[in-house]
């Protein structure tokens, strides 16, 4: 299903400690039903789990491209309650999310 994202965030050129805060800030600005496209240099799976922990049921996650050099993910806002979600300073370090 083709869609046009409301925002695109290419985190490949963003400092690792700023990636998740930038992503969550962009997501908070979306209206319900809008989506953002995330572009990354590694699988953002730990970010998916962070979204799941902070706003269960409030987002949709669809891989548009899955490596090996570029990952693109569509993240859609499904409920207004997800507007209150915030980042707790989690970030990817050293170019990959370790979840540790």
From TrEMBL:
Domain DUF2249 as annotated: residue spans: 8-77
Pfam families recorded: DUF2249 (PF10006)
InterPro entries, per database record: DUF2249 (IPR018720)
Protein name: DUF2249 domain-containing protein
Lineage per the UniProt record: Bacteria, Pseudomonadati, Pseudomonadota, Betaproteobacteria, Burkholderiales
